[in-house]
Amino acid sequence: MIYWHWLLGFSLFFVVAERLLPARPGQRPLRKQLGNDLFYLLFNGHFYAVLVGGLSGLIALRTRGLLSPVLPFAVDGSALSSMPFWGQFLLYLIVSDFLQWCVHNLLHRVPFLWQFHKLHHSIHEMDWAGNFRFHWMELIIYRSLLYVPLALLGGDGEPLLLAAIFSTFWGQLNHANVRLKLGPLGYLFNGPEMHLWHHDSSAEGGASKNYGIVLSIWDWLFGTAYWPRERAPDRIGYPGDHELPRDLPRQLIFPVLRGREQ
User: Fold this and answer.
1) 110-157 pLDDT, tens per residue?
2) Residues 6+ apart with CB under 8 A from 85
3) What is the pLDDT of residues 180-205, one digit of tens each?
């Protein structure tokens, strides 16, 4: 399995899906900032994610080797690696999704991290490409806090890669302009309607809500879920998002500039 092949296929799929089943038919395909987001797709998705993922994977394996004398389950041949492929995949998906929920929570609640995460919330017209509008520092934060715990589980590389690929697909789905009704499954899985409220620029339902990536169950369990199913937010973004530059170079250095001003 090659990650960027799947990423390219998912992107083409959602380009077509948004034309056939748009949730917001009036939204323009060639929206503002689309060029910026295609850059983030190519850089964050096709290049930087693979690079950082490889490096963090090596660090995780080294860490597992160093800790194996005191954590005997963190070695090849552990109970996890003896599980069937799909069992490992499900365990990796559930554990990694919960860890991502925790990291996403931190990105909103820690002021220093929020400066980086603002870029992702500066989008005003949501579609599949918006999934990749995030600052490069976020990948370092996510990979650092995800890969070492996952590596310590032991297990095989392929089900872990498949869990990452599935999470990428679902992240694009959550941001896509597609009409999808999950019904009762919305209490287990995140979806475009629920995630759109995460990007709500108002404080309705609480300013911090709907952190889930694949699973919404974490938000329902921990009281951060908000989803008025009968309507969408009046505006997406974040309060004061006019502060964020619209050109790529200044978007990439925005957190540094903001840090100096404060």
Assistant:
1) 999 999 999 999 999 999 999 999 998 888 888 778 776 777 777 777
2) 156, 158, 159
3) 999 999 999 999 999 999 999 999 98
Long-range contacts of 256-259 (CB under 8 A, 24+ apart): 258/115, 259/112, 259/115
Both tokens assigned to 227: 């989803």
Taking the C-alpha atoms of residue 44 and residue 233, their distance in angstroms, rounded to an integer, is 27
| Rg for the chain, CA atoms, rounded | 19
Neighbour tally for 29: CB within 10 Å? 11
* CB contact at 8 A, 216 and 187: yes
How many residues are listed for the chain in this entry?
A: 262
Alpha-helical regions (H) of the chain: 3-20, 34-40, 49-67, 85-109, 111-117, 136-152, 157-175, 192-198, 217-222, 248-261
Between CA 64 and CA 239 the distance in angstroms is 42
Asked if residue 68 has pLDDT above 80, the reply is no
Work out the end-to-end distance of the chain between its first and last CA atoms, rounded to an integer number of angstroms: 45
Contact 217, 247 (CB under 8 A): no
Chain CA centroid to CA 68, Å: 30
pTM here?
0.86
Query: How far is 63 from 85, CA to CA, in rounded Å?
Result: 24
Please state the φ and ψ torsions of residue 63, each to the nearest 5 degrees.
-65, -40
CA-CA-CA-CA torsion sign (92, 102, 47, 12): positive
Average pLDDT for the chain? 85
Give percent above pLDDT 70 in the chain.
84
Q: Residue ranges of the domains in the chain?
A: 32-261
Contact 131, 53 (CB under 8 A): no
Dist. CA 176–CA 129, nearest whole Å: 8
